[in-house]
TrEMBL record:
A Pfam family reported for this protein in Swiss-Prot or TrEMBL: Vps53_N
Keywords linked to the UniProt accession: Coiled coil
Taxonomic path: Eukaryota, Metazoa, Chordata, Craniata, Vertebrata
Matching InterPro entries: Vps53, Vps53_N
Any one GO CC term of the record: GARP complex
Sections of the chain in a coiled coil: 96-137
Protein name: VPS53 subunit of GARP complex
Keyword Nucleus included in the entry's annotation: no
Residue intervals of the Vps53 N-terminal domain: 40-225, 227-399
One GO biological process term: retrograde transport, endosome to Golgi
Length: 544
């Protein structure tokens, strides 16, 4: 029996020779630490392991019995497995048939579910379509109801608007008209409907009628008879009239218009435009009757009125119109208070270089009326020409009457007082003219200044130099600088030397002040006219 088993094992080993890949797979599936399960099992080594020494052979019977017991168990296991596989084929076929039947049933259920899903989807589409139709119907119905309400409001509002317009109920019309216009905006896309277009035309007609009617009422409420033909001596009445009208307007009609419309200012501005045009017409017609005092009076009253407008209004209505020429720079020294009665040289030197005053805001209404006086400022210029001529003649007469400065007095060797009087008068003229215009009248005034600066140099300075015995033709400054030899040197008395020093000091003062005068004139004249301001010739005269 043992020999047969040994032979069977050898045959089995020869038959079951597994490849390394299969052996590795088996080890991964059925891991084992038993040396018998190793692919490279060596029986000799295994026996040597069990019986390493001769003494260990004493237990050989126990070891053999254990191995035999293990072999029997393995045989039983193999026999059980082999027997169990006899019914596997039949069971597999039965399981396959059952699986096929289950798959067919599952397929049928899936098909039923798909059919039901398609039916549900179709039902949902139908329900959604119905909901959309109902939603559209609701929206259209709401729009129709709203439109009908607006139409009812529009029709009733137009009827009420026309009735209130006829009755001149402007307070009620103001709110109603805005509401009707707002409602009419909802019907812009329906203007193709004749009835809607007719209502829109009725609203426009009512608006036009209201505008015409209100303007007529205001023209009737504001009497204007005789307000355009008054002469310059009555110019105060013009401004007093508009003041009364504005006060009356604010009391009676101020609340009829929104505050942001600035209606009071608009009325005042329109009055200014009309006044400027009418004054210009009147002055062209009666130009020969214009006198300098009357002209200055009218200009003063007009600039005062423009200043009053600047205090009362902001000038916001002038932004979309041509703004009048901006006023002169408030830091101009000519805008300082006029000099008092004390016109001494001490108070006016340096005449044109006083500290500047803080700048004040521009007057947006400057020139809105007073611009009409500029074409007639030649009357003022001619008057200053005449006054300056008389002033120079008075300087000459006073010098001859009072005589030259004496030694030992305050005037001895000092600047002549007449030059201070001259430049003070120049300053006064520039203040007035610069307030009236910064254009051509300033150029004309500059020409007059040049004329009388030269006359002052000739008549007051050069004309009063003392004559020496050796120069009967009169003394010149250059002759004073030439020293003659010995006894031929020019001899002057102490009083004559004092006079010469005064004239030299006066010429030096006039030179410096004329230069400052030129700078101030250039500051005050329009930029396009700056190049026409040139006092170099007059400065050369004083320098010479």
């Amino acid at each position: 029996m043992e020999e047969e088993e040994f032979e069977f094992a050898e045959d089995l080993e020869a038959i079951l020779h597994l490849t390394p890949e299969v052996q590795l797979a088996i080890e991964q599936v059925f891991p084992s630490q038993d040396p018998l399960d190793r692919a490279d099992f060596n029986a000799v080594e295994y026996i040597n392991t069990l019986f390493p020494t001769e003494q260990s052979l004493a237990n050989i019977d126990d070891v053999v019995n254990k191995i035999r017991l293990k072999i029997r168990r393995l045989d039983d296991n193999i026999r059980t497995v082999v027997r169990g596989q006899t019914n596997v084929g039949q069971d597999g076929r039965q399981a396959l048939e059952e699986a096929q039947i289950a798959i067919q049933q599952l397929f049928g259920k899936i098909k039923d579910i798909k059919d039901k899903a398609e039916k549900s989807e179709q039902m949902v589409k139908e329900i959604t379509r119905d909901i959309k139709q109902l939603d559209h119907a609701k929206r259209h119905l709401t729009t129709s109801i709203t439109t009908l309400n607006h139409l009812h409001m529009l029709a009733g509002g137009v009827d009420s608007l026309e009735a209130m317009t006829r009755k001149r109920q402007y307070g009620e019309v103001a709110n109603l008209l805005q509401g009707v216009v707002n409602v009419l905006e909802h019907f812009h896309k329906y203007m193709g409907i004749p009835q809607i277009r007719q209502l829109s035309e009725r609203v426009k007609a009512a608006q036009n009628e209201l505008g015409t009617q209100i303007l007529a009422d205001f023209e009737e409420a504001f009497p204007s008879q005789g307000s355009k033909v008054a002469w310059l001596d009555k110019i105060d009445r013009r401004y007093a009239w508009i003041k009364r009208q504005l006060v009356d307007y604010e009391e009676k009609y101020g609340r009829m218009f929104p505050e942001e419309w600035c209606m009071t200012e608009r009325i005042a501005v329109e009055f200014c435009h009309i006044t400027r045009v009418e004054l210009a017409k009147v002055m062209r017609t009666r130009a020969k009757e214009i006198e300098v005092k009357l002209l200055l009076f009218a200009i003063q009253r007009t600039t005062n009125f423009e200043g009053l407008l600047a205090k009362r209004f902001t000038g916001c209505t002038l932004t979309d119109q041509k703004r009048p020429e901006s006023p002169l720079d408030p830091t101009n020294p000519f805008l300082e208070d006029e000099l008092g009665e004390d016109n001494s040289l001490k108070n006016c030197f340096p005449l044109f270089s006083q500290p500047k005053k803080p700048k004040v805001p521009d007057n947006p209404f400057h020139g809105i009326v007073s611009k009409c006086f500029e074409p007639h400022l030649y009357v003022y210029i001619e008057s200053q020409d005449k006054n300056l001529g008389e002033l120079i003649d008075r300087f000459v007469a006073d010098f001859r009457a009072q005589g030259p400065p004496k030694v030992g007095t305050e005037e001895g060797g000092a600047v002549l007082p007449s030059c201070a009087d001259l430049f003070v008068y120049y300053k006064k003229c520039m203040v007035q003219c610069s307030q009236l215009s910064t254009g051509e009248p300033m150029i004309a005034l500059t020409t007059i200044f040049q004329k009388f600066l030269r006359e002052y140099a000739w008549k007051i300075l050069s004309g009063n130099l003392p004559k020496s015995s050796s120069n009967s033709g009169g003394l010149t400054i250059s002759s004073l600088l030439k020293e003659k030899e010995g006894s031929e040197a020019a001899k002057f008395t102490v009083d004559e030397l004092c006079l010469i020093c005064s004239i030299l000091s006066t010429a030096e003062y006039c030179l410096a002040t004329t230069q400052q005068l030129e700078e101030k004139l250039k500051e005050k004249v329009d930029k396009v006219l700056v190049e026409r301001i040139n006092l170099t010739g007059e400065m050369d005269t004083f320098s010479t």
